[in-house]
């Protein structure tokens, strides 16, 4: 158990905070260890200046197994991270942030999928096709977060998504990847697509 | 009297300035001491590079009790800070800034409340409800600032606001909190909501 | 002749560049010395990384009197700075930048004045009135820059402007002030007003 | 072969990344050496933190001649850089990035040229005319990148473009210049023009 992803998560959180994606303590980041437990940001911390004690380590059942600061509790959205790691065993990082654009575009979705624009940047989400027709799954928001997690699990167990990202309405995007670096890249692409879609509606 | 909040206020002002919320010396920040006096930014200082002598300490009646630089005078809006500390005895920090979005959305308000969008980010202002129906109180701007302060006092003594924030029309937002860190978080959420509301109107 | 404003101009240019107001070498900054000569940025330099040799010193007639690098020539717009210093003898700094918003709003002007919004931020340009009715003078752009300068001189000799700023159509804003710090504050307010006016048109 | 442009490319990439023009590993930068080979960014690297081993050196025929890290391969778009260096023998740097605004404006183009606005900033692309009437050539995007390169070569061999820049639809801008510094300046102007054009459509 020597690998500690917290320094990478601290750096990533600061960058996302500076982009305006983690304002006012919003959002949560996690990374998995070889034993399938994962470090996740504690609830209510400003994401621009996390320290290693601002994390909680939980196992895949959501049980806290390491708590550097006893005043902390895991993010309220830990169940979504559990679900992602259970659905995608290769995923080692899961990032959830709340941009203005993600929230706005989520209200424009018809049905339960956001249609992504067929632009070159989709290659960054692993889509190498001419004129790709790809969607990002969207989910209803609930005050009861485990209910969101359950709906994600139900849907992804029936059909895996086109891209490693999902959007909760009024509640931001979640991405996952094999590495923390790849998760950051996916998040940048997802937020780029939201900005593109919102700006496209302003231009029309 | 050992606690000195000025270093935290200097850091906060620089961050808000970099966000574009304190351009051209606009806005003012204060933090209260245990004796109920408070340090407030002096008038006319660039908020990106404050020093400890760019503050004035006043008591709850607005009387100057410490003036590191005799050329300074307290912010023209000190009376609003006094009013906030009088209305909310637990408040220890009060931040007032002028973003473009706050000013624009203030002109769209019908009546004297801004209706806030029912998005997840409202949790950051302490609202934990499904589909919350919450407003931010708005006030008319007057050249005579004590008149603004009086109208705030009158209204909040009748009914406390849903959220720890108020908006003065054409004149930016004011937030307050138990700690400087919490005040910064509230401000980030308030400005996020203004950006959301303005962008939503551009998309419609 | 010990005072050298170049370090302040270098810092200001870097900040304006980072705001997106001096892209691709655009814009020019100057500051006056006690002998009425002034240092102005040389033509064609990236404003994010100026050095002291990237300036030229000229007198009020536009004659070069100090040239740290013989490869340089003064900004193509030196005649506008001369005109400002001649019209406003108290001015010690003159800043000219090209934001997207300034250029866009310049095309919306009817007549030869931009009507400024009556928002609190106008105090930062020295306007302390209830519901102020204030304009910023606008000028036509010409490839022949001395012709722009002449039109500025003609108009300001008839009537001084309401605010220490002017806008050239398709060509950005120019501000002037007693000090470099005040000039930066005025520029921030001017650009804030342009952003406000453009966003207001997007919301309508 | 002592000149190594990679440090300049690393700095440029970090700046463009911070502007949001190289999100999620998008884009590629190259610079030519005296022997007509060029260093180009390797495929799939985050542009905010390149190192010297994140580049590949290829000759004008696209053959890899230096590979500091054997796991790397040249950018998928190397053929476009080859074409630029072949068409414009004086070009020593070629930069390709993907901003939201470039992608959006590319979809608004009628025919195969983007009409540029007649604003002062065009001087930064070498256009010194009163009311210039200038276009930027646009090209269709293809999954098969060498096909894009071929169409660029065909068109530019018939008629050189007005400005040292081209736009691929849904796929961002490419600029070229005699020096890395000039290429950065051209890119800043191009992106400024895209932002201007998009904002102009939002204001209308």
Automatic annotation (TrEMBL), chains A, B, C, D:
Residue stretches making up the Class II aldolase/adducin N-terminal domain: 7-198
Record: residues binding Zn(2+): 96, 98
Gene Ontology annotations for the cellular component aspect, listed alphabetically: cytoplasm
Reaction equation(s) it catalyzes: 5-(methylsulfanyl)-D-ribulose 1-phosphate = 5-methylsulfanyl-2,3-dioxopentyl phosphate + H2O
Classification via Pfam families: Aldolase_II
Keyword Metal-binding belongs to the record: yes
Alphabetized GO MF terms: methylthioribulose 1-phosphate dehydratase activity; zinc ion binding
Annotated metabolic or biological route of this protein: Amino-acid biosynthesis; L-methionine biosynthesis via salvage pathway; L-methionine from S-methyl-5-thio-alpha-D-ribose 1-phosphate: step 2/6
Keywords tagged on the record: Amino-acid biosynthesis, Lyase, Metal-binding, Methionine biosynthesis, Zinc
Known EC number: 4.2.1.109
Note on cofactor: Binds 1 zinc ion per subunit.
Cofactors that this protein relies on: Zn(2+)
InterPro entries attached to this UniProt entry: Aldolase_II/adducin_N, Aldolase_II/adducin_N_sf, MethylthioRu-1-P_deHdtase_MtnB
GO BP annotation list: L-methionine salvage from methylthioadenosine
Similarity remark: Belongs to the aldolase class II family. MtnB subfamily.
Function: Catalyzes the dehydration of methylthioribulose-1-phosphate (MTRu-1-P) into 2,3-diketo-5-methylthiopentyl-1-phosphate (DK-MTP-1-P).
Name listed for the protein in its UniProt record: Methylthioribulose-1-phosphate dehydratase
């Amino acid at each position: 158990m020597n690998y500690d992803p917290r320094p990478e998560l601290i750096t990533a959180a600061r960058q996302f905070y500076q982009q305006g994606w983690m304002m006012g303590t919003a959002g949560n980041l996690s990374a998995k260890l070889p034993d399938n437990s994962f470090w996740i940001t504690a609830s209510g911390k400003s994401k621009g200046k996390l320290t290693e004690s601002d994390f909680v380590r939980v196992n895949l059942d959501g049980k806290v197994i390491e708590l550097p600061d006893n005043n902390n509790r895991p993010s309220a959205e830990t169940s979504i991270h559990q679900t992602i790691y259970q659905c995608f065993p290769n995923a080692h990082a899961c990032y959830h942030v709340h941009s203005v654009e993600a929230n706005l575009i989520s209200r424009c979705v018809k049905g339960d999928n956001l249609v992504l624009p067929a632009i070159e940047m989709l290659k960054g989400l692993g889509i190498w096709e001419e004129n790709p027709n790809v969607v990002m799954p969207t989910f209803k928001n609930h005050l009861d977060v485990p209910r969101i997690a359950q709906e994600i699990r139900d849907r992804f167990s029936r059909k895996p998504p086109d891209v490693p990202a999902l959007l909760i309405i009024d509640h931001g995007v979640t991405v996952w990847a094999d590495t923390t670096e790849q998760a950051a890249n996916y998040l940048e692409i997802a937020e780029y697509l939201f900005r593109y879609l919102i700006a496209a509606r302003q231009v029309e």
